[in-house]
Each structure stands twice: as C-alpha cells, then as structure tokens.
Specification:
Length: 207
C-alpha cells in the first residue's frame, strides 16, 4: 500500500486577494494561539484549585479525632453541648457547622469500629459453643442483641458462601459438635473446620 504524499499546489489569485488571505490568516492563527494558551492556563488553574481543595479537605478531616476527644472532655466536665461546640470551633479555627460534621464523622467511625469488634467477638464465642447469656455478659449487651447479631451474620454469610458452609455455620450456632455436623451433612470434619475458619474470616473482613 502506497503511503500518502503531500504535494504542493500553487493557485493563481489576484494580489489583493492574496494580501487579504495572508492578513486574515495571521490574525486567525494569533487568535487561536491566544485562546489555546488561555485554555491551558485555565486548566492548570483548575487543577491547582482541585489539589488545594483536596489538601484542605484532608487537613480538616485529620482534625476529627482531636475534635471528638475534646468534645468528650468538655461534656464530661459539665460544659453544655452548644458551648463545647463553640469552644472547639474557636480552638480549631473552624465554623461550628463544620465542627459538628467532624464530630459526627468521628463518632460514627468509633461506633462502627466498636460494633464490628463486638460482632467478631460474638461470632468467635458462638463458634466455641458459648451460651447466649455468657456471650451477652462478656460483650456487655443483651441476649436479644446477641441473637440479632448472629441472625444477621448467618444471613450475610450464607448469601456470600456455599450452601454447605452456610448450613454448617447454622448448625454450629445451634451448638452441634463438629463430628455431629459432619455426619449430619455427609461431609468430613475438615470441611466443618474450614467453614468455621471462613466464617471467622468473613466476620473480620466483611462485618
């Protein structure tokens, strides 16, 4: 296949027309160049603005633990909620609304962490065939919370694993022995042990 070649072509036009084309052609090229440079400057400015915004947002979010600790200290000392928020906002040089948002974010993160660790402990103890009252007393919750946590975990785990593993965990939560579960489901004891390991891993990673 032949490569395309650029062939210069000469067109005869009147001198006046040639001068007009040259004049306007230079003007158009200069205008396009200026517009391109302006667009590039605007793109760079927007990029810097986004970077500064991300850095500022990250810096503000890093203040959340400090704001939450200070908030709890002030509440324990008897300061009202509104006064505590105002004081923290003044200390961190942040608006009160932003201070409230930071405290809420940190409070939710702490709560989620506590719930996640508690769920892992409940699963671990139940796989060891501990009773509901024992688990409730150990975790400092009610037996209803333990039952609800186990029921939710069982549903989540069953939807993400094989039917056999889900049935093994369901029977294990009913305090059946590993050998009895293996005999009942027609599988090996090692399969039961692997299902329990999978459940503990799921509790650590997915809950």
């Amino acid at each position: 296949m032949c490569e395309p070649r650029h062939i210069p072509v000469t067109i005869m036009v009147p001198e006046a027309v040639a001068d007009e084309v040259r004049a306007h052609g230079l003007a158009i090229a200069e205008t396009a160049s200026r517009e391109a440079e302006a667009r590039l400057r605007q793109i760079e400015a927007n990029k810097l603005e986004r970077q500064e915004l991300v850095q500022k947002r990250s810096a503000i979010l890093r203040l959340a633990p400090q704001a939450y600790r200070r908030y709890r200290q002030l509440l324990r000392s008897g300061v009202s909620r509104s006064m505590a928020l105002s004081a923290i906002g003044a200390e961190l040089e942040l608006p009160v609304t932003l201070t409230v948002t930071l405290i809420r974010l940190r409070k939710k993160a702490v709560h989620d962490y506590i719930v996640r660790r508690r769920t892992q402990t409940i699963i671990r103890l139940k796989l060891r065939k501990r009773s509901y009252p024992f688990i409730a007393g150990y975790c400092g919750v009610t037996t209803q919370t333990v039952r609800r946590t186990l029921r939710t975990f069982e549903q989540q785990f069953s939807s993400q694993t094989t039917q056999l593993n889900g049935e093994i965990i369901r029977l294990r939560f009913k305090k059946l022995k590993q050998a009895d579960i293996a005999q009942k489901l027609g599988c090996s004891k090692q399969t039961v042990i692997r299902a329990q390991k999978a459940a503990r891993w799921f509790a650590r990673v997915k809950t």
